[in-house]
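Re: beginner question about structure tokens

> Can someone show what the tokenized structure looks like for a real chain? I only ever see the sequence side.

Sure, here's an example I had lying around. Input first:
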Amino acid sequence: MRNRKGTFQAPRLELEILANEHSEIRCRHFELDEAILRGEGSPRILEAAGVLVRSMLQHFTHEEELRKKIPFPIGAAQNRAGIDLMAELLRIEVGLQQGEVYAALRLRGLCKRWMRGHIDLEKTEFEIGAIVSSSEPDRLQAP
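And the corresponding structure tokens:
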């Protein structure tokens, strides 16, 4: 992401979108947590979980699009973990569509672990990627 002079421009809008999605995911996770802890019933729990899983899937799609714009190395283990997480979210989504409350419980735990490890790490990764990209002027950049 370079301007006409060939200098790097940070993808601020994309990073802001990801940050907003993080806030949305936290909010939706809280709603699911409350629905479960207050015993609001299966329909409400499934509804809250459905909104959360869609928010997470949308976020990972946007995240992958940004990774394509900011070329920086991603480890094989981290790539595999991302693929596994996306696959699990898709399985959970199917379970929710079939009315499985257990899928909502799995989503609750998965999201909680993800929020602890991912959100802060992701911000740092994209910042490092932006710095690396800007320090390599001859490196081919994605359009």
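Each token stands for a local structural state, so reading them left to right follows the chain. The radius of gyration is 18 Å.
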